[in-house]
């Protein structure tokens, strides 16, 4: 394997690792939402405030979500099961990307899958966010996951295509 092929392979694997780690972290953080919102309120020095007392729209939204989770989980703790499954889904998708780590060329289709999923984040966040009364600024934060997630998928796709072309060219000369 040439030095150029080794470099491309290393880049592809780095993209796959970024995707796997990002998916696992975003999945795992969906589990302790109530505690995370409590911590976030404290970080914004708003732990004792009500949403009406918030000084910014961001802090108001954090407090509304925090209070909603506390009220809902106190009466209906099973609702959290939905975010447990969200976490599970992220982790399962991350496991699928392990295929790229094992066989980058054979599993390069996962980068295409990842790009499609990232593009679909945008209309989903904007439409579902509107239906669920999520503030526009928060919908854009959600959309950013699709935008930033697209980058390592696109680079991985691009570099696996180059690797395939290099392999095909080397086979013609053998």
Condensed summary:
By secondary structure, the chain is an all-alpha fold. The protein has one domain (3-173). It has helices spanning 3-28, 33-43, 57-75, 81-102, 109-131, 136-173.
Describe, in plain words, how this protein is organized in 3D.
This protein has 174 residues and is mostly helical. It has one domain (3-173). Helices cover 80% and strands 0% of the residues. The protein has six helices and no strands. It is elongated. The two termini are 13 Å apart.
What's the structural blueprint in terms of helices and strands?
Elements: H1 3-28, H2 33-43, H3 57-75, H4 81-102, H5 109-131, H6 136-173
Helix pairs in contact: 1-4, 1-6, 2-3, 5-6
Low-confidence stretches: none
Helix content: over 70%
Order of helices and strands: HHHHHH
Derived from helix and strand composition plus strand pairing, the structural class reads mainly alpha
For the sheet with most strands, the description reads:
none
Shape: elongated
Cα-to-Cα separation, first versus last residue: 13 Å
**Cα-based radius of gyration, to the nearest Å:** 21 Å
Please give the count of helices: 6
Instruction: Look at the structure and give the mean pLDDT.
Output: 95
User: What's the number of extended β-strand segments?
Assistant: 0
Assess the beta-strand content as a share of residues: under 5%
Number of domains: 1
């Amino acid at each position: 394997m040439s030095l150029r092929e080794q470099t491309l392979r290393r880049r592809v694997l780095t993209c796959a690792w970024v995707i796997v780690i990002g998916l696992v972290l975003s999945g795992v953080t969906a589990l302790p939402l109530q505690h995370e919102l409590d911590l976030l309120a404290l970080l914004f020095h708003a732990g004792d405030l009500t949403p009406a007392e918030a000084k910014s729209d961001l802090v108001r939204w954090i407090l509304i979500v925090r209070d909603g989770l506390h009220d809902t989980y106190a009466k209906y703790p099973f609702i959290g099961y939905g975010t447990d499954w969200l976490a599970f889904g992220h982790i399962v998708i991350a496991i699928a990307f392990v295929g790229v780590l094992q066989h980058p060329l054979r599993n390069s289709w996962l980068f295409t899958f990842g790009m499609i999923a990232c593009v679909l984040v945008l209309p989903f966040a904007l439409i579902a966010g509107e239906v669920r009364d999520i503030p526009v600024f928060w919908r854009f934060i959600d959309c950013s996951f699709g935008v930033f997630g697209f980058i390592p998928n696109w680079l991985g796709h691009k570099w696996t295509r180059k690797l395939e072309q290099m392999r095909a060219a080397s086979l013609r000369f053998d």
